[in-house]
């Protein structure tokens, strides 16, 4: 009997393999952006750096991304509490806000390009496009996950199950991660321009 209790306790304490994989992926992404920002600092210290102001649209895109985290978290809470209408509508809004973030980033890149900041000129522009572009790619991955969540929301009968809660939690955790990552990157770019 003690063995059965011990085995059951071990099962309770184990992390779900999908959650572990997500956390591992987020740790890898964090290390990648840590490498990008470290290289940025080293290259910045070389002295051939062009200073320029970040376009205001990057700040607008930040507000959009923060709003998307709020709507996605609210969607999850509505799902768990049984408010199907709010769950579905907030989920769709979150996806739209994610797409809006990438659109605003693209507009910011165009603004930078119009003032002569491009990929092949000064390293400052190259690093900015690299850092923001790779982050935008991760946002698009999150938008894809939200799209799958929307397909589940509208194609499956509404029912709160452990499996559906788990899948939704993975999407929410990843989305909050890319949101926090963007805040870090924006602050970094503001401090080291």
Oligomer: single chain
Name the helicity range: over 70%
The whole-number mean of residue pLDDT values reads: 92
Quote the CATH topology: Four Helix Bundle (Hemerythrin (Met), subunit A)
State which percent range the strand residues make up: under 5%
Find the CATH superfamily.
Answer: Cytochrome c oxidase, subunit III, four-helix bundle
Order of helices and strands: HHHHHH
Radius of gyration, in Å, reads 20 Å
Q: Tell how many strands the DSSP assignment holds.
A: 0
Uncertain segments are none
Number of helices: 6
SSE order and pairing:
Layout: H1 2-13, H2 17-45, H3 57-81, H4 84-114, H5 123-155, H6 162-191
Helix pairs in contact: 2-5, 2-6, 3-4, 3-6, 4-5, 5-6
Structure summarized in a few sentences:
This protein has 193 residues and is mainly α. The protein has one domain (19-191): Four Helix Bundle (Hemerythrin (Met), subunit A) (Up-down Bundle), CATH 1.20.120.80.
Provide a descriptive summary of the structure in words.
- The chain has 193 residues and is mainly α.
- Helices cover 83% and strands 0% of the residues.
- It has helices spanning 2-13, 17-45, 57-81, 84-114, 123-155, 162-191.
- The longest helix has 33 residues, at 123-155.
- The relative contact order is 0.15.
